[in-house]
Amino acid sequence: MESGKGIEIGLYTLADIVPNPHTGTAISAGQRIKEIIQAAKLADGAGLDIFGVEEHHRLDYAVSAPPVVLAAIAQATERIKLTSATTVLSTVDPVRLFEDFATLDLISDGRAEIIAGRGAFVESFPLFGFDINDYDALFEENMELLLKINENERISWSGRFRTPLNNAEIAPRALQNKLPIWVGVGGTPESAARAGRLGVGMAMVILGGEPRRFKHLVDLYHKAGMESGHQDQLNVSVTGHGYIAKTTQQAKDEFYPFYSNYWTYVNRQRGMSFKMTREDFEEMTRPETALFVGSPQQIVEKILYQYELFGHRRFMAQMDIGGIPFENVAQAIELLATEVAPVVRKETSK
């Protein structure tokens, strides 16, 4: 984190296409992508720091190619950093991935980043011809190769899952000296320790509950990173769901139908019938929990409480979820940028 600037504040999107619970209709994939580009323009113009786009390979999500969408965003924005959130690293060729994001880096004048993860869904494994039983081994090998490519414009390499490389040229090179690479971590200690050992950033996903239960992951990450000699490269990001309105009651009233709708939809896909009640939602949005739903002041307090716990350098929220209309998202982006970010940056720059 740059001295005196405080933590970075930004947004990410899963690009889900879920029917609006009030109307029963869903927008098209094309409209969803256009709204994502517009959200990034709003975030950039309002002074937010980072915008991320997630990868899925399903008809109920609009984005399967984050670098393509991010390249479109790059042309519509001026300064905001652009990242995948996340790239499913186990089922993508690391050479192709690096070349895509190096190209994005050139298009955007040095604003590209990668958050690599293993993904919450597994449809990309059969789609691209990979065995789900190799889930972890693929991730490990692909991360090793990606990091080597990021360091060297010519490489020789051999592994288990792809053809060897012999003094291969990896082109183009990014405008930045090296692309910033992060690993998305859900809740497993092994993932946190691996991110530390590799000396990459840890993007920690906290979707609810008490934030303190994630403190051990940050400690493991720093311990593994220090033991591996990466103390100068360690950065933590917190990502989570959220929504902001003028008052906490307004935020909860507006967001609940869409958030409940999202989880009902996702749980049905996973063979579960759980439906989030309003009482469940009220419990999830208590001041001491990690779900970022409330007034600007409540969101500030939640971010700063987590900053005391984790000392993270970046916070990213997902607010366009469950079919929520774009006008609601736009208003929440404005509040995040104008009433939350300045206070958080000031407090965390001390």
TrEMBL record:
Gene3D superfamilies: Luciferase-like domain. Residues 12-309 form the Luciferase-like domain. GO terms for cellular component: cytosol. It comes from the Bacteria. SUPFAM superfamilies: Bacterial luciferase-like. Signal peptide: none annotated. InterPro entries: Bact_Lucif_Oxidored, Luciferase-like_dom, Luciferase-like_sf. It holds the Pfam family Bac_luciferase. It comes from Lederbergia citrisecunda. Keywords: Monooxygenase, Oxidoreductase. One of its GO terms (molecular function) is monooxygenase activity. This is LLM class flavin-dependent oxidoreductase.
